[in-house]
Amino acid sequence: MKKKLFVFIVTSLFINLFAVQINIAVESIEDQIQLLNSQIENFEKQNPGIDVEIYLIPSYPGSTYKFYGTFVVTNAKEPTILSLDMEWINEFSPFLVSLNQDTEYFDVNNFIPQILEMVTINGELKAIPYYVETGVLYYRKDLLEKYGYEVPKTWNELITIAKDISQKEGIEGFVWPGARYEELTTFFLEIFYSHGGKIFEGDNFVLEQPENKEKALESLKILNKIISEEISPKGVTTYREEECRNIFQSGDAVFMRNLSYAWHLINSEGSAVSGKVGVAPIPKTEFTNQHVSVLEGKALAINPNASDEEKKAAKQFIKYLTSNESQAQRLIQLNFLPTNLEVFNEPTISEVDPNLLNFRSSLENLVLKPKSPIYTEISFAIQNNVYDALTGRISVEKALNNMIAEIGFLLR
């Protein structure tokens, strides 16, 4: 017995000593780390020759981007696996391993086509879609039922319902991320795309065309109206996702625009609105027949400075993380949406929370953010001018003209 135990210990030490060491960059968010640690433990049991560690990076908006900028400049060997916002893939693509030849690891046909398009740059697959987060409309089911309203399908319907119920209940009508950061860009794009507007058509900048310009102007006017008519508080221009969630979760708002992650939190034990909330697609306008969702989420890329062994191990781990089983775990525990619609068929999902199936509709009409190697600068031009219009610093007309001029200058 002692001899067997000795052999086992020596064998384990031998495996650990010669295991390929890799790490994955992860933002320091507790619940995400807990799930990933569990998945790493399971992966290592299945792959004893690979040792995976978490490489913690900052999670505050803007700091993650700066970390990857530093990574590029320093030509760093770590982390092995990069977890990048999907809109950054184009910008960082020269510094990422091409995965075109790795069909043994990744079946690209399983991914939602729009997501695959976002991570494919000039015909090269530069990252593997990890998970999706889209903006959705959260609403108080109990209050809509109390006052005899259906779930709003258009922005005009939302404004009417929010104004009426908020006045009767003495709460906010609609909370959304209005601070000067990436999510404001996304929210503006959701409204703009719902008008059928375009910023780019192929590689051509078309926001300055009269039709698109008019639709962008109408989008800005909707946002201004929501604030000026006190459907949203003036302080909404300081809100990020968590400020919105805290207000809504406390029972102090009728509607909330937020990302999919908020679902399991607003229905958690102790939430004032647990069991009283429904989820619907972002409203549309008369210009579009379908609700649209702007693609957000993460993709996993591989550091080109890693050794061949490390790259191979990284591909195996990414394959595991993007399996249907792993994606179902993320949906159930974090409400991160899958990159493969087949995941919704996993029986464990409906067993844990059938409401999670309602999020599938937000993945059926995905629209991409501008796909550009200078996306970050384009986003700054959008969010800065939208913010200035919302806070009354400039008119909506001036904000739009500035936006067009600044993006045009960036593209020269």
From TrEMBL:
GO BP term (any one): maltose transport
Coiled-coil blocks: none
CDD domains from the UniProt entry: PBP2_TMBP
Keyword Magnesium: no
PANTHER family given in the database record: MALTOSE-BINDING PERIPLASMIC PROTEIN (PTHR30061), MALTOSE_MALTODEXTRIN-BINDING PERIPLASMIC PROTEIN (PTHR30061:SF50)
UniProt-listed SUPFAM superfamilies: Periplasmic binding protein-like II
Record-stated family: Belongs to the bacterial solute-binding protein 1 family.
GO MF: maltose binding
UniProt keywords, alphabetically: Signal, Transport
Organism: Petrotoga mexicana DSM 14811
Domain of life: Bacteria
UniProt protein name: ABC transporter substrate-binding protein
GO cellular component, one term: ATP-binding cassette (ABC) transporter complex, substrate-binding subunit-containing
Signal peptide: none
